[in-house]
Every structure is written in structure tokens, then in C-alpha cells.
Amino acid sequence: MTIFQFPQDFMWGTATAAYQIEGAYQEGGRSLSIWDTFAHTPGKVFNGDNGNVACDSYHRYEEDIRLMKELGIRTYRFSVSWPRIFPNGDGEVNQEGLDYYHRVVDLLNENGIEPFCTLYHWDLPQVLQDAGGWENRRTIQAFVQFAETMFREFHGKIHHWLTFNEPWCIAFLSNMLGVHAPGLTNLQTAIDVGHHLLVAHGLSVRRFRELGTSGQIGIAPNVSWAVPYSTSEEDKAACARTISLHSDWFLQPIYQGSYPQFLVDWFAEQGASVPIQDGDMDIIREPIDMIGINYYSMSVNRFNPEAGFLQSEEINMGLPVTDIGWPVESRGLYEVLHYLQKYGNIDIYITENGACINDDIVNGKVQDDRRISYMRQHLVQVHRAIHDGLHVKGYMAWSLMDNFEWAEGYNMRFGMIHVDFRTQVRTPKESYYWYQNVVNNNWLETRR
């Protein structure tokens, strides 16, 4: 048996997102988001599922926080529904929406659980999308107003902030590949959106400083790690594009004030360019305190001119996969954490990591051993990185509970708590109890 001891101040936690768990989509003054529109469009989401009710956490947050307390976590990463705060995108604030989040945050703090707030987890108000969405620079100013309102309201209550969750998904998965809302398929649009996100991020960080808001602020990219299938230069370049588009495309402008030139050139060959205006890069480079890392899997890739706009094809290597089809290979987490040291030994939080395992209730229990195995493997890699001297400050398992899994609807389950979506009954899985033990001990054990 091997024991992996974690630092005394390590922040164990878990994570969710507003549209995936809250429900109450027409309550409390909330307007529609792009995900309401997308999910209600036939053929966009598995089985026609939507987030109208989701986990009904809007009404059941007290029960959910009680389960967090019993789990023993020190932090909870949640996101704020922008259309609950500004039903018109900007302008007049909806006090009822703010009051809801005050109740959630106050109860978290009362239970000794540090609120870790993501401002934007994909639910843009539909009214802003109708005016051009993130392609329109007006949305940048609307976001800054939203962010400033949250900073003012929750100063002293929330000490960890993230501006955007997974900007690659917001820009490319949603506007180039069309898989997520708003479902567009244009490379130039994706690049425009990504750049405007970064400008909104930088302006919000600047406002955070100007207001003297307490705590730390950063951003949470979904990172990727890809290993070349062969030693060919084409395969190596395909992997570099895969890795860099997820991480460097968004982090290099923040830390170094420029986009990766080889990707700029790659996109130029496809007729797309970054819409940089005077002053944008200085705004984007506003210093941040930490980054969140969302990591799920690594891949083995090779060059294939038919494999989409990056021409990088993932090869099936026969590895075990989760029920959503993602290979289980924890080494990529260790590798990408080291890769990011190019930006300095910055504070890093693992803001999402988990496995889609669709085991159901049998005799009152969910014996999700594959999820436990996944989490154990990845936590060992986190420990390795800390042992190497990297500033990995916390780990937030995705997810607290089964929820609306975006385009997969309710077909894929990532939670440590089983949710019966007909009755809303919550049943902690065996992974919940395993993680509870890890958190309470502050160490991890592995056996041969």
C-alpha cells in the first residue's frame, strides 16, 4: 500500500454549473439563455432533453449543500446564471436573482464551504445572442457590467472567481463545430468569439482590481494533451495544434500578450484572422492570480487532412473508456500541468476532473467502481505534480451530482450523487463515500 499525503491547506471540492442543475428556467425573473433556445430546438440535444427542471437545485440547494457538508469538501465551484441577474443582458438588475445567489453563498459560508464562483458557464442571455452574441463587442460591455455587479454584491463573501469556463468550448465547439449553443459552424465566427471573450475577461479582471475586490481571479480553460502517433513532423504538428488551441490560444494572450503565431498562420491559410483592435492585447494581458484546469482525457493523434479544421485525428489505442467514450489515461493531467509551467509556477486549481460512468441503482446502491478508479489515478497525478513543486492548490471533482450534460441531455452521468430525474431523489454513490474518505484523511492510498 502507498500513501499519498496532500498539503494541509489543499482545497478539496466539487463542481457544478447553473444551467446543468438549477432548473426553474422561467422563475425568479430569469430570462431565456442560448441553452434554453438550443435545447428546445429539435435535434440539438439527445432525446429532446432540456434544462427546464434539471436537478431542481434552485429549489433544493439546501439539500445539496447538506450533502456537500456531509461529503466534507472545503470548496464548491458553481456558476451564476447571467439571465437571472440581467434578464435583458445588461441594464436593470434583477434583485430576485441576486437574492437567490446570496442565499446559496451565505449557506455555503455558514457550512464552512468556500464558494468558488464561475461567472460564465455558457448560458448567455438569448437577448444578447439576438443582437449578435459574442460576435458583437456590445456583449463585452454587458459582461463587464454583469461581472462588476457580482464583484460589488459578493465582496467579502466570495474569494475565488473565474471569468469564463472552457473558452475553447464557447468559441470553437459552439461556433465552429456547432455541437453546443448557439450551434454555428464558421471558423471566423469562432475566432471572433474567442477574442471577444478574452477582451471581456481582461476588462473584468481590471474592474476587479479597481474595485478592490477581495480574493483571487482567473480563468478556466479545458486543457488537452495529445501524443503523436508517430515520430513524423506532421503528427507532431497535429498534436501541437490540438494542445495549443485548447490552452495556449487563450493563455498566451493573457500571460504574454500575443496569440500562438503558428496557429495564427494556420487559420490565415483558411481565410480567418483575429479581429484585434487597438488596446485589446493590453487589456487581455491584465495580470490574473490563478487558473482553473478542466481535464478529462488525453489522446494519441496523427495528421489527417480530412480530420476537421485542425487536421488532427484521434486514434483508438484500445484503452479503457468512460461511458461517454473518452479514454482513461491519467498521465495527460501530469504532462499538461508541467506544460503550463511555461507561463510561470502559477497557482492552479483542478476545477473539473471526473468520469462519465452510467451505473444505476442496484439494491439501493450505485457501485461505481470505475469512477473511483478514474479519480484515484488522476489524484495520484495531481500528487506527483505537487511533489515536483507545482502550485496545485485544489481539486474539484466533476460533478457533485448527475445533471443535464449539455448536448448529451440526461443520457450521461458524471455525478458522485445519483439523481432520479423523475423524482429528484438524490442517492450518494460509492464514489461519494470514497471521496469523502479521501477528503477527511487528506491523503490517498493505493494498493497493488
TrEMBL record:
Keyword terms: Carbohydrate metabolism, Cellulose degradation, Glycosidase, Hydrolase, Polysaccharide degradation
Pfam name, any one: Glyco_hydro_1
Listed GO CC annotations: cytosol
Top-level EC class as recorded in UniProt: hydrolase
InterPro entries per the UniProt record, alphabetical: GH, GH_1_N_CS, Glyco_hydro_1, Glyco_hydro_1_AS, Glyco_hydro_1_beta-glucosidase
Gene Ontology terms describing biological process: cellulose catabolic process
Chain sites annotated for binding substrate: Q20, H121, N165, Y296, W398, E405, W406
Keyword Hydrolase attributed: yes
Alphabetized GO MF terms: beta-glucosidase activity
The enzyme's E.C. designation: 3.2.1.21
Protein name: Beta-glucosidase
